[in-house]
Structures are given as structure tokens and as C-alpha cells.
Design goal:
Elements lengths: L7 H19 L4 H12 L16 H25 L4 H10 L2 H18 L4 H6 L8 H17 L3 H26 L18 H6 L10 H24 L5 H20 L3 H28 L1
Helix pairs in contact: 1-2, 1-3, 2-3, 2-7, 2-8, 3-7, 5-7, 8-10, 10-11, 10-12
């Protein structure tokens, strides 16, 4: 009989994720901080691959992300009910709803849900399926994730921790892809179902690198964000006068590795997007420098 007991890794996530919050609270960690932890954990959804389902690269990520976000919301509500000062959450919500970006994202989500309501198949539009996972239900989770980030990440340190978590997740995504390309048992790589080329170098470059995302077209834009996070943390560390040679080496190597696998994904659209972005950035820096020199 096929039961959840046959999938210990899934059972470990179902039991382990809530247990993190329960144990943390036992040791006196605030509900607010635990909610932040679950937001940090949610970004590791990119690493989840479930070989036991028909679409291993999709379903597991959806389930993991939703579960982590739901737990973050539960602990946020507990913080609001038990630990937050009177009027603190209400003030945060009011401030957030005045933010143009928050308003724009909220309007977008409302339009998506309206599209689900008037879809040809409303049930499929809202719930989707295990093949794609994208749906009104998933969009609600994205929105909760976004809203909790706005409400809970109130300091630069919070955002830095989120970026660092994302960088670790990006590294694990690449490691999974390498194991898959080199044919390690239990890992799905670019050559699954076909004959892998001979030699380590050819296994790395002959196929389009797909990491743990299962699609090279996803790897490239994901690594663009990862390079930005690493660059931001590098610049901010230099600005804080806490930079040393090892930090310089670490961040430069990290960005170089992300760039290498960005190239190995062989996604032309992402190449073009990154090129245009860099070009616009250079123009902005030149224009800013010109305005600054003119004002002196």
C-alpha cells in the first residue's frame, strides 16, 4: 500500500517544519522572529525535487513553499495576538497600504483572482494541477509571502538575511545540477533519459544546465537575481568598513560561479536581458556622475 510513510523525506518536512517553530518557542524565541525564519526557509523551495511524483521539479517546490508561507502566516498571527504592542500591527498595515508598490502588487493579485473567477474552467484556474502549480491559490501564497516580507522585514539586517538565505539556496541549486549532470544516483540532470557525453568537461557544457529547477530558462533569470543579491551584500559590506580580503574573494568567486552557470544555461533571452540591464545601469551611472559634477 502506497502511503506517506513510504516517503520519509516528505514526512520529515511535514513534521520537521512545524517542529522548528515549536522548539524555537520552547527556547524563548519570539513569534515574530520565528515567522521571519519561515520566510527565510521558503526561499529554499528552489532546491526541492521530488522523484516520487510525475513532475519532480514542480510539485515539491509548490508544496514546500506553500507550507513554509502558511507557517510564517500562523506565527505572524500568533505574534499579532500575543506579543505585539497595542496598535503595532495595525500601524504597519496602514503604512504598507500607502506604499505604491504594495498597492500595485495588491491590484495585480486582485486581477489574477478575477481572471480565475471568470475563467473557462474556474476550478482549474484557481487550483491548477501538479503539472504546473501556477494558479490563483498559488498566487495567494505569493501575495502572503510578499505581504509578510513588507510587514516583518523592517531593517536592512532582515533583508540581508533573506538575501544570504537565497544565495545558499542558489548554491544548493547548482550543486544539485552538478550531481545530476555527473549521473549521481537519485539526481535528475540534463542528460536524464539520454546518453551522457564522456568526460567531466563535456558533461558540464554539452547540455543546457538546469540545476534543481528542471528548466534552463528558469536557471538564468534566477541566477541574475542571485548575482544581484551577492553584489548588493558585497557593496554594503564595503560601505560598512567591515570588508577584508577573504570577503572580497568570497563574493567575487560567488558572482563568478553564478555567472558561469548563468552562461551554461544557454538562455539567450536572459543574456539579452542582462546585457540591456547592464547597459542601462552604465548610462544611469554616467548621467548621475554628469549631474553631480554640474552641481559642484
Amino acid at each position: 500500500m502506497d502511503t506517506i510513510a513510504n516517503y520519509p523525506e516528505v514526512l520529515a518536512v511535514i513534521v520537521g517544519l512545524p517542529l522548528v517553530g515549536i522548539v524555537a518557542k520552547f527556547f524563548g524565541v519570539s513569534f515574530e522572529r520565528i515567522a521571519k525564519w519561515y520566510l527565510y526557509i521558503a526561499v529554499f523551495a528552489v532546491v526541492v525535487v521530488m522523484n516520487s511524483i510525475f513532475f519532480p521539479f514542480i510539485g515539491g517546490k509548490d508544496y514546500f513553499f506553500r507550507f513554509a508561507v502558511e507557517l510564517a502566516l500562523i506565527f505572524f498571527m500568533l505574534w499579532w495576538a500575543v506579543e505585539a504592542r497595542n496598535g503595532e500591527v495595525e500601524s504597519l498595515v496602514k503604512t504598507s497600504f500607502k506604499n505604491p508598490l504594495f498597492i500595485a502588487v495588491s491590484a495585480f493579485v486582485v486581477m489574477v483572482l478575477l481572471a480565475c473567477l471568470f475563467a473557462y474552467d474556474m476550478n482549474a484556474a484557481f487550483w491548477s494541477n501538479y503539472e504546473r502549480g501556477e494558479s490563483g491559490f498559488q498566487m495567494i501564497h505569493y501575495y502572503i509571502f510578499f505581504a509578510l516580507l513588507v510587514l516583518l522585514m523592517r531593517t536592512e539586517k532582515d533583508w540581508k538575511n533573506l538575501f544570504k538565505s537565497s544565495l545558499v539556496a542558489a548554491g544548493l541549486m547548482i550543486v544539485y545540477g552538478l550531481f545530476g549532470n555527473f549521473g549521481v544516483n537519485g539526481f535528475i540532470g540534463s542528460y536524464a533519459g539520454s546518453q551522457a557525453p564522456n568526460g567531466i568537461w563535456h558533461k558540464l557544457i554539452d547540455g543546457r544546465f538546469q540545476g534543481s529547477l528542471g528548466n534552463p530558462a528558469y536557471v538564468a533569470p534566477y541566477l541574475i537575481f542571485s548575482m544581484f543579491y551577492a553584489g548588493y551584500l558585497w557593496v554594503r559590506r564595503q560601505a560598512s568598513a567591515r570588508m577584508n580580503i577573504w570577503a572580497n574573494i568570497g563574493y567575487s568567486v560567488m558572482i563568478a560561479v553564478f555567472l558561469l552557470f548563468f552562461i551554461l544555461s544557454q538562455t539567450r533571452g536572459a543574456f539579452l536581458g542582462l546585457g540591456v540591464g547592464v547597459f542601462v545601469l552604465v548610462l544611469y551611472l554616467i548621467f548621475s556622475a554628469f549631474l553631480f559634477s554640474s552641481s559642484i
